[in-house]
Amino acid sequence: MTPAPEWHAARWFNTDAAPSVAALRGRVVLLHAFQMLCPGCVQHGLPQAERARAQFAGEGLAVIGAHSVFEHHAAMRPKALAVFLHEYRIGYPVFVDAHHDGDPLPRTLRGYGWRGTPSVTLIDRQGGIRFSHFGVVDDLVLGAWIGRLLAEPADADCDAEGCRVPRAP
After folding, report:
1. What angle is formed at CA 57 by the lines to CA 78 and CA 81, rounded to 5 degrees?
2. Domain boundaries, given as residue ranges, for the chain
């Protein structure tokens, strides 16, 4: 299992305390990358993240958005993102994915190996990447993965193949 890298946030929205991968240990994390000018993100990715948040509220799922801009930089500034999040009623924490030294690709996007937007990554309770997908993910597939990860105990020895029963001492 690959450990989830920390996020590189230039700015946060919808939160007073910036969450981190380390701080969310013990919870399942749905991390989705989007751009506000991406049709697939607006039509599918963002509504899906909101549905997942509503469906699994109180069950240990944290939904985090990464506004990972790799094109149309001038149009997708934080001020425009604030209006976009308000208009689309996005209530979960969202960060602006930081850039580094003129690199057109944001740091979190690069670190997670996302090929574009929308992308979704599920991080298990131990902080490991268990599912990652570029493009549209069917709601049933995503829901099944989330349910599976939420059903795992917080201290389980798990990877992409499943969870092992602890050996007796």
Report:
1. 10
2. 24-68+80-111+143-149
- Cite the beta strand spans of 98-167 per DSSP E: 119-123, 128-134, 157-159, 162-164
pLDDT tens, residue by residue, 125-153: 999 999 999 999 999 999 999 999 999 98
Task: Give the tokens for residue 103.
Answer: 């690199």
Nearest C-alpha neighbor of 98 from the set 139, 70, 135, 122: 70
Query: What's the CATH code, domain 24-68+80-111+143-149?
Result: 3.40.30.10
- Read off the amino acid at residue 27: R
User: What's the mean pLDDT in 56-78?
Assistant: 84
Query: Structure pTM?
Result: 0.87
